[in-house]
Specification:
2 copies of one chain form a homodimer.
Chain A lengths: L4 E8 L12 H11 L2 E9 L3 H14 L2 E5 L10 H9 L3 E3 L1 H13 L13 E3 L3 E3 L8 E6 L2 E6 L3 H19 L4 E9 L4 H12 L6 E7 L2 E10 L2 H19 L3 E3 L5 H12 L3 E5 L5 H7 L8 E7 L2 H6 L5 H7 L4 H15 L3 E7 L14 E7 L4 E7 L4 H20 L1
Parallel strand pairs in A: 1-2, 1-3, 3-8, 13-14, 13-15
Antiparallel strand pairs in A: 4-5, 6-7, 7-8, 9-11, 9-12, 10-11, 15-16, 16-17
């Protein structure tokens, strides 16, 4: 029998009730909980509002076996979670001297004296296990309340996520039922959403388990697979079978099989081959360099980037012949190629990658419309370029151009 | 007496509890409700789950004056909203022959015979006003339940939105009375969360209206102010008064008064003064260039960026004296200053901005730990630098370094 543990998530903070804010913590938490066979049945978003929060926590304890709250553990007046959770559970709240001292030390390490108000972050609910927060000042709490697990976590994802993974997940695994849910994400570049669906629908519609969802995310197609099994191995075997079939029809358009980002895939390929790269960007304005260097260890293969926004910079720093710009315009195949060659020679790398284009909102003409982008890749033997016409606004054109350029390099490295 | 009407939103549908889905209807509804002076105090997301939905609706009627549900009005078994709402309110549900006939006609107009299961969409709750749905088959309902307005709307935005605007909003305006809610966001750089709160708590705690929420978002502090008034002008006057007081204690740490991003503020200041800038980055890897060029029209003031990841690039492209690197290391004040001078001269701009640091996770030493960052700003008259010790992981150190560098330029431009 498939029996899953039920959970609910309470996101706390008045800012989460504004029209421009959405609670993303619960998405990540849902994925984590699902992966250990726990199903999320309800989510509540409540402001810094004592009465409503108290009611939400009290109601939750009556119907769910796992309750996770995020937010409201900061040092300010409106961080009410500790106080209200204690009241909802009928437990005392008291100052823990040891945690207070740790907090003081944490501040001192960064050369500050702890502000007095932060001492409220050392208040602990009776019977709670304190969850250390290596990335912030607010510790979390884990309370077993008559068999219901109540977990208080801070709101910032950088603090919340490692705390959940290290200190909460292992405890919950023990409580979860006998179903394991495993997800996998394939990432695809260079194909449209309907093209992908047309290729893979005949395959994935044959299966109820795994379930397949296709998501269009900026310039990438994400194929989400969710499998259920008695064990993780069972679920993984189902995923292996399906993803092999999908890969067969999608070929090298699939660039990632475990959710890795494009820049991580490219970085790994450069790294294992001992290759180096340098980048010359115009319309992407540093985005490609930023993505490549976002990967830890990228200094091994990323040598230099030039954001040549002005024609002068293209000529002076990258050595593009001014006549080439005059004749073809800055957004053209010859200039893209000269930029790629120029940065490769300047930085003395194996590869030179370049982008020039019109990201908008201004600057488009009939002949060279918004979204027109040239990318080029230069190596010792040859220089290749591609012309793209990318849909979307400025941000999206920039992102898509960076993705296409990185994908050009990825395919060269296969 | 200013009394805002309190609302809550219940989003219904199991798909909204998946890890890759978020409820966006409530954001749009919140904006709509706020604009007519109604405050959203709670949001619930519940699956196609009779018991939990019934409880959610019943609880909501006890604490809120306006309740809006979205979703669960379709023709299938798991569309439970009508049935469960009737039960929660203790009202009968019965078939409305007139609506049934309209539904049949609607299907016929598109050349179809109405499937039998769609007849459940003609079920109406006792006492409800039926809300026509011009873009779909599911009608909505408006119920006045002992003074509480309960509104059932379909989930698809293209059906829900026009129904709300045409048939719901006018009814709620009458109930909302004469209160308007206006929001404003101040952004702060260069100060920690507790430091900000310590400065401003003595001020904002004096006011119930506007309400103040402080949010820590990457390297920025966001101060969210929400004011209620009889008119928008009244609310804005309250916001003006409070934000002036806050500005007085925070000084030039406040860089944005209407939610503008740092790169937009800096860009505007460069633009109106006719100044130009170029950037030399090491550990931020192109992030500053990317942020500056993310702003439309930035080609007017942003000329060039160099991502000098290798020492060789620092020397060759930026003209940093190799002896300087040898003597002080690449992460040092003299090298940061030489990079700023170098890029300014190379690109022939008014300002040269530079960053060099250790973003991690590797590369830290006792003398030069992770998070050590130098930023420098060069102009024709002088070169300034600052030494920073930034907490956080690789991404956060990079972000914070980019923010501090942009902030250095912003303060120079005041």
């Amino acid at each position: 029998m498939l029996e899953t543990l039920t959970a609910e998530i309470i996101a706390i903070g008045s800012e989460l009730l504004a029209p421009d804010r959405t609670d993303t913590n619960s998405l990540w938490l849902t994925e984590q909980l699902n992966s250990i066979g726990i199903e999320v049945r309800l989510k509540t978003i409540v402001g810094d509002d004592d009465a409503r929060l108290e009611e939400a926590i009290r109601d939750a304890t009556k119907r769910s076996k796992v309750i996770i709250t995020t937010g409201g553990l900061g040092p300010t007046e409106d961080d009410v979670t500790r106080k209200v959770a204690a009241r909802a559970l009928g437990r005392r709240l008291s100052l823990d001297e040891e945690i207070l001292e740790e907090l003081r030390q944490k501040f001192l390490r960064f050369g500050h004296v702890m502000p007095e108000r932060n001492s409220r972050q050392a208040m602990v609910i009776e019977g709670a296990e304190v969850l250390p927060n290596p990335n912030g000042s607010a510790p979390g709490m884990f309370i077993d309340h008559h068999g219901v697990a109540i977990v208080l976590l801070p709101g910032p994802p950088r603090e919340m996520r490692p705390m959940f993974e290290t200190n909460v997940k292992p405890k919950l695994v023990g409580r979860a039922g006998n179903v394991r849910v495993v997800r996998r994400m394939l990432r695809v570049a260079g194909l449209g959403e309907s093209a992908v669906d047309e290729k893979i629908a005949p395959i994935y519609t044959q299966y109820d388990n795994p379930q397949t969802t296709i998501l269009f995310n900026q310039s990438e197609i994400e194929i989400h697979l969710t499998a259920r099994g008695r064990t993780e191995d069972d679920a993984n075997a189902l995923l292996d079978r399906l993803s092999e079939q999908l890969e067969e029809v999608l070929g090298d358009s699939v660039f990632s099989f475990a959710g890795e980002k494009m820049e991580e895939v490219v970085g790994l390929k450069l790294s294992v081959n001992g290759y180096t790269v340098a980048v010359a960007e115009s319309c992407t304005g540093g985005l490609i360099a930023q993505r490549l260097t976002d990967v830890a260890g990228s200094s091994k293969y990323f040598m230099e980037g030039v954001v040549a926004y002005s024609n002068d910079a293209k000529t002076r720093t990258l050595g593009v012949d001014p006549a080439l710009i005059l004749e073809n315009g800055a957004v053209s195949a010859p200039v893209a190629r000269a930029m790629a060659d120029g940065i490769r020679k300047l930085a003395n790398t194996d590869f030179g990658l370049s982008v020039t284009g019109i990201a908008g909102p201004g600057g488009g003409t009939e002949e060279k419309p918004l979204g027109l982008v040239y990318i080029a890749l230069s190596d010792e033997v040859q220089t290749k370029h591609r012309k793209l016409q990318l849909p979307g606004d400025r941000q999206l054109v920039r992102w898509r151009a960076s993705q296409a350029a990185l994908d050009l390099l990825r395919k060269r490295l296969i």
